[in-house]
Amino acid sequence: KYFWRLTRNKHLVSLQPAQIHRFWKGLPLNLDSVDAVYERTHDHKIVFFKGDRYWVFKDNNVEEGYPRPISDFGLPLGGIDAAFSWAQNDRTYFFKDNLYWCYDDHQQRMDAGYPLESTLWKGIPSQLDDATHWSDEKKKGQMLD
Asked: pTM of this prediction?
Protein backbone atom coordinates (compact mmCIF):
# COMPACT_ATOMS: atom_id res chain seq x y z
CA LYS A 1 0.00 0.00 0.00
CA TYR A 2 2.91 2.37 0.75
CA PHE A 3 6.51 2.84 -0.33
CA TRP A 4 9.43 5.15 0.37
CA ARG A 5 11.28 6.98 -2.39
CA LEU A 6 15.02 7.56 -2.54
CA THR A 7 16.93 10.25 -4.39
CA ARG A 8 19.72 9.27 -6.79
CA ASN A 9 22.07 9.91 -3.85
CA LYS A 10 20.18 7.27 -1.83
CA HIS A 11 18.52 9.70 0.58
CA LEU A 12 14.85 9.49 1.53
CA VAL A 13 12.67 11.96 -0.37
CA SER A 14 10.38 12.11 2.65
CA LEU A 15 10.15 10.40 6.02
CA GLN A 16 6.49 9.82 5.21
CA PRO A 17 5.61 6.91 2.91
CA ALA A 18 3.77 7.53 -0.37
CA GLN A 19 0.69 5.57 -1.43
CA ILE A 20 1.54 3.18 -4.25
CA HIS A 21 -1.48 3.90 -6.44
CA ARG A 22 -1.15 7.70 -6.06
CA PHE A 23 2.43 7.78 -7.32
CA TRP A 24 2.39 4.94 -9.85
CA LYS A 25 -0.27 6.09 -12.34
CA GLY A 26 -2.08 3.11 -13.83
CA LEU A 27 -2.20 0.69 -10.92
CA PRO A 28 -5.73 -0.16 -9.75
CA LEU A 29 -7.05 2.27 -7.16
CA ASN A 30 -8.10 -0.60 -4.91
CA LEU A 31 -4.62 -2.16 -4.92
CA ASP A 32 -3.67 -2.54 -1.27
CA SER A 33 -0.50 -4.60 -1.74
CA VAL A 34 1.86 -5.96 -4.39
CA ASP A 35 3.54 -9.36 -4.62
CA ALA A 36 6.86 -8.17 -6.04
CA VAL A 37 8.53 -5.19 -7.74
CA TYR A 38 11.85 -4.93 -9.54
CA GLU A 39 13.77 -2.48 -11.74
CA ARG A 40 14.94 -3.85 -15.08
CA THR A 41 18.68 -3.34 -15.42
CA HIS A 42 18.74 -2.65 -19.17
CA ASP A 43 16.12 0.12 -19.36
CA HIS A 44 15.43 1.01 -15.69
CA LYS A 45 11.70 0.44 -16.08
CA ILE A 46 9.85 -0.70 -12.97
CA VAL A 47 7.80 -3.92 -13.07
CA PHE A 48 5.01 -4.56 -10.53
CA PHE A 49 3.42 -7.97 -9.90
CA LYS A 50 0.10 -8.70 -8.24
CA GLY A 51 -1.57 -12.09 -8.58
CA ASP A 52 -1.63 -13.24 -12.20
CA ARG A 53 -0.92 -9.76 -13.63
CA TYR A 54 2.02 -7.40 -14.05
CA TRP A 55 2.53 -3.75 -15.05
CA VAL A 56 5.57 -2.03 -16.57
CA PHE A 57 6.27 1.61 -15.73
CA LYS A 58 8.46 4.22 -17.35
CA ASP A 59 9.04 6.89 -14.74
CA ASN A 60 5.79 6.74 -12.77
CA ASN A 61 3.39 6.10 -15.68
CA VAL A 62 2.22 2.68 -16.80
CA GLU A 63 3.20 1.65 -20.33
CA GLU A 64 0.42 1.14 -22.85
CA GLY A 65 -1.10 -2.35 -22.95
CA TYR A 66 -0.80 -3.19 -19.25
CA PRO A 67 -1.71 -5.06 -17.13
CA ARG A 68 -0.63 -8.30 -18.80
CA PRO A 69 -0.61 -11.92 -17.58
CA ILE A 70 2.51 -13.15 -15.78
CA SER A 71 2.48 -16.11 -18.15
CA ASP A 72 4.24 -13.68 -20.57
CA PHE A 73 7.35 -14.39 -18.47
CA GLY A 74 6.81 -18.14 -18.55
CA LEU A 75 5.74 -18.03 -14.92
CA PRO A 76 2.89 -20.17 -13.61
CA LEU A 77 -0.42 -18.54 -12.80
CA GLY A 78 -0.94 -17.87 -9.13
CA GLY A 79 1.51 -15.03 -8.64
CA ILE A 80 5.08 -14.82 -7.39
CA ASP A 81 6.53 -14.19 -3.96
CA ALA A 82 9.66 -12.18 -4.78
CA ALA A 83 11.74 -10.82 -7.67
CA PHE A 84 15.04 -9.04 -8.11
CA SER A 85 17.40 -8.16 -10.95
CA TRP A 86 21.06 -9.00 -10.71
CA ALA A 87 23.23 -6.66 -12.80
CA GLN A 88 26.24 -9.02 -12.68
CA ASN A 89 24.55 -11.41 -15.11
CA ASP A 90 21.71 -9.20 -16.41
CA ARG A 91 19.11 -11.66 -15.19
CA THR A 92 15.96 -11.35 -13.12
CA TYR A 93 15.16 -13.98 -10.52
CA PHE A 94 11.58 -14.87 -9.62
CA PHE A 95 10.64 -16.89 -6.54
CA LYS A 96 7.44 -18.78 -5.78
CA ASP A 97 7.08 -21.19 -2.86
CA ASN A 98 10.29 -23.27 -2.90
CA LEU A 99 11.13 -22.68 -6.59
CA TYR A 100 12.96 -19.99 -8.55
CA TRP A 101 13.25 -18.99 -12.20
CA CYS A 102 15.96 -17.08 -14.07
CA TYR A 103 14.68 -14.65 -16.73
CA ASP A 104 16.58 -12.83 -19.48
CA ASP A 105 14.95 -9.39 -19.83
CA HIS A 106 16.95 -8.60 -23.00
CA GLN A 107 15.78 -11.73 -24.84
CA GLN A 108 12.40 -11.66 -23.05
CA ARG A 109 12.54 -15.35 -22.24
CA MET A 110 13.11 -17.68 -19.33
CA ASP A 111 16.50 -19.37 -19.23
CA ALA A 112 16.36 -23.10 -19.99
CA GLY A 113 16.25 -25.58 -17.14
CA TYR A 114 14.05 -23.60 -14.74
CA PRO A 115 12.40 -23.70 -12.28
CA LEU A 116 14.91 -25.00 -9.77
CA GLU A 117 14.70 -25.56 -6.01
CA SER A 118 15.36 -22.35 -4.10
CA THR A 119 17.44 -24.37 -1.61
CA LEU A 120 20.27 -24.01 -4.15
CA TRP A 121 20.59 -20.44 -2.83
CA LYS A 122 22.60 -20.99 0.33
CA GLY A 123 21.56 -19.07 3.41
CA ILE A 124 18.11 -17.90 2.33
CA PRO A 125 14.73 -19.16 3.54
CA SER A 126 13.25 -21.99 1.49
CA GLN A 127 10.17 -19.85 0.82
CA LEU A 128 10.81 -16.15 0.21
CA ASP A 129 8.23 -13.44 0.54
CA ASP A 130 10.34 -10.47 -0.54
CA ALA A 131 13.70 -9.50 -2.00
CA THR A 132 15.60 -6.32 -2.68
CA HIS A 133 18.81 -5.34 -4.40
CA TRP A 134 20.88 -2.24 -3.80
CA SER A 135 24.19 -0.83 -4.84
CA ASP A 136 26.30 2.25 -4.48
CA GLU A 137 29.85 3.07 -5.53
CA LYS A 138 31.36 0.90 -2.79
CA LYS A 139 28.85 -1.77 -1.81
CA LYS A 140 26.38 -4.06 -3.51
CA GLY A 141 23.99 -6.49 -1.95
CA GLN A 142 20.76 -8.38 -1.95
CA MET A 143 18.43 -9.01 0.94
CA LEU A 144 16.15 -11.99 0.69
CA ASP A 145 13.50 -12.71 3.31
From this structure: 0.81
